[in-house]
Specification:
The protein is 35% helix and 22% strand. The chain is an alpha/beta fold. α6 crosses α10, α9 runs antiparallel to α10 and α11 packs parallel to α12.
Length: 478
């Protein structure tokens, strides 16, 4: 029976795939978003309209008595005109994560991929393997495969077949999942302190059929408990051992010791974390019936996930530009160390993805960055991303930059134009430029603009700074 949905905040990265899925499964769908009202994300608006999804103003008038379910983004304020209208009309109000959990729990089987880092890549890898293997499945991930656009990994399968989805802990809704296969890739400080995260993951671990846990992460390994649990990873205690064979600047090679034999992993993305991502994806795909040889061949061709150490390009002077979604301590550490493995010098830029996250990360970054950065590496804070709404704006990137020792020479850029100027001024042949941040939809465009500016500079024969440049604190670049 068709259900009539309204998606409030339909342009959101987690919202629009669910809206498209409900439409693909035969339901009536409409939606609204303040970004669309402002004329932003026009390509997304066009693609939604082509599917028969009505886009309406987000002023409350779209919410009428004929609706069955009102789905809302948890990023939207609690008292918008639409929320008030839905409440007044008695329409069922469903948080986006609750609808996602409902889809997963109804899958045949449902697979929920959780963890504070890596779940978008693991989900993307599983989706790629299933598609390559011809397995009909629905896949809902937080990031698109490289070259496919759309903002998320989105594959539609029959409603009664396998559903693989990224299950996020950020809003406390991880407890609603009841998957046949649950995966906990890691549990680290992200969105909340560990004491707040542990109960969520513990509940998730109890409410599953089969559980896969990363043995290298103590928090994940501790969730194994009773029941059908398999641990994986580089730990000697793992049920499925991952052996690291070689980590290169552009790829990672390893072997997973499955009960049926050894599975070689040749991952065309660098870093130990990507090798672990591939091991987790291989186990899920094997549980869904994909042959080991097909898994190995698929991973060798994996295009990568958008903004997960995505190489935008390498200039004619050998400067590599990388776009990455890193936004918490563990992700920033993984991105910087992976960049360092492929370059003698890294120019890293980080844009905090909100004022709350900036406050949460401040003390951690004060310790983390001086320990990570090598003497010749450079670092720049872009200004905190502000998406609008009622938030306390009591921290700035200038304050974060002042937290770091003067020896680091941390720069601070008030906008994306200033970021581009800083990179062009500081970059030298052979550098890796690492641009990190989340939420801001303009970050991919910034990475491309940085690459183009560096190419233009190289074409004009303009030299970068001398390698003997002192590391004085640059201050604001505005």
């Amino acid at each position: 029976m068709a259900v009539r949905y309204h998606f409030s905040g339909i342009a959101g990265q987690g919202m629009n795939p669910l809206a498209r899925l409900m439409r693909a499964w035969g339901h009536e769908v409409q939606g609204s978003d303040r970004a669309l009202d402002q004329g932003k994300q026009r390509d997304l608006a066009a693609s939604l309209s082509e599917l028969g999804i009505r886009l309406l103003p987000q002023d409350g008038t779209a919410v009428t008595a004929g609706l069955d379910r009102f789905v809302y983004s948890t990023a939207v304020e609690a008292e918008t005109p639409e929320v008030r209208a839905a409440r007044a009309l008695g329409i069922e109000r469903v948080p986006r994560p609750a609808l996602l959990a409902e889809v997963v729990n109804g899958g045949g089987p449902g697979v929920a991929v959780s963890g504070t880092s890596g779940k978008s890549t693991v989900t993307g890898m599983v989706g790629w393997i299933l598609r390559e293997a011809g397995v009909p499945a629905t896949v809902l991930g937080g990031a698109a495969l490289v070259g496919e656009g759309g903002g998320s990994c989105f594959i539609v399968g029959p409603a009664d077949r396998a559903v693989v989805a990224e299950a996020c802990e950020s809003d406390g809704t991880l407890v609603g999942y009841r998957p046949r296969i649950g995966l906990v890739h890691n549990v680290t400080r992200d969105h909340a302190e560990l004491p707040s995260l542990r109960p969520q993951f513990a509940t998730f671990a109890r409410h599953r059929g089969r559980l896969l846990v990363n043995a290298r992460c103590p928090e994940a390994a501790a969730l194994a408990g009773a029941g059908r649990t398999v641990s994986y990873g580089v730990s000697a205690t793992a049920d499925v051992r991952l052996d690291v064979l070689r980590l290169e600047a552009g790829r990672a090679l390893g072997a997973v010791r499955l009960p049926t034999g050894e599975l070689m992993l040749d991952v065309p993305q660098p870093g130990l974390h990507n090798l672990e991502n591939a091991a987790a994806a291989a186990l899920v795909a094997a549980d869904l019936g994909v042959a080991p040889a097909t898994i190995a061949a698929s991973i060798r061709r994996f295009p990568g996930v958008a903004r997960r150490f995505e190489v935008v390009g390498t200039t004619r002077s050998g400067i590599r530009v990388v776009d990455d979604y890193a936004h918490n301590g563990d992700k920033i550490r993984a991105a910087i160390t992976t960049a360092q493995a492929g370059a003698d010098r890294v120019l890293a830029v980080f844009q905090p993805h909100g004022f709350g996250p900036a406050r949460f990360l401040r003390d951690e970054l004060k310790v983390l960055l001086p320990a990570l950065l090598r003497p010749r590496d450079r670092f720049c804070y872009a200004e905190v991303f502000y998406a609008g709404g009622t938030v306390t704006r009591d921290v700035s990137s200038a304050m974060l930059a002042e937290d770091l020792p003067p020896a680091i020479g941390c720069a601070q850029a008030p906008d994306h134009r200033a970021v581009r100027r800083w990179v062009v001024k500081e970059a030298e042949p052979g550098d890796t430029i690492l641009l990190m941040g989340a939420r801001d939809p303009d970050l991919p465009a910034l990475a491309r603009a940085v690459y183009q500016s560096l190419e233009t500079t190289a074409a004009r024969g303009i030299a970068g700074p001398s390698r003997s440049r002192s590391r004085e604190r640059p201050g604001s670049l505005g």
